[in-house]
Design a protein that fits this description.
Elements: E1 3-8, E2 19-21, E3 26-28, H1 31-47, E4 59-69, H2 76-83, E5 88-89, H3 96-107, E6 118-121, E7 124-129, E8 133-139
Parallel strand pairs: 4-6, 4-7
Antiparallel strand pairs: 1-8, 2-3, 4-8, 5-7
């Protein structure tokens, strides 16, 4: 069994439903979501070792954390906890399933062939922390 750990130092972005142009009746993906996917793809490629080969094996994600930089409005006690390396659960939008969609789409064709290979996702969480990042650990 292989283990892979990836840390993407970027703001987690949610993938929302496809938008529709009512005038033309065409579906489109907003530009900011396309750019986020391109950035994720680039960061994923950079984080992999040189000889990494895409897997076609079943995948178990053992850790999937979306960490957002703590807002200024936090109380002193919360800021201290975060400065000491702690994390605080994020209970606001975006939803976890939408955060995961963009990341998994970006991994397709690089880490795995298709996200249907994922049979288990353990420890999917979203937090406030010191800096924006995504941490993913998987076994295959």
């Amino acid at each position: 069994m292989e283990v892979l750990k990836i840390v993407l130092k970027t703001v987690p972005v949610a993938k929302q439903s496809t938008k529709f142009n009512m005038r033309t009746s065409r579906a489109y993906t907003p530009a900011n979501k396309r750019k986020a996917k391109e950035l994720y793809t680039q960061l994923i490629r950079e984080s992999l070792s040189k000889g990494f080969k895409m897997t076609d094996k079943p995948i178990r994600i053992t850790k999937l954390w979306f960490i957002f930089k703590a807002p200024q409005r936090f109380k002193a006690k919360q800021k201290k906890h975060i400065k000491e390396g702690g994390l605080i659960p994020k209970l606001t939008t975006p939803d976890l399933d939408n955060l995961q969609k963009l990341l998994f789409d970006s991994c397709s064709g690089i880490i795995w062939d298709d996200d249907k290979q994922i049979f288990s996702i353990d420890g999917m969480r979203k937090y406030y922390g010191l800096e924006d990042r995504i941490v993913m650990e998987l076994e295959y």
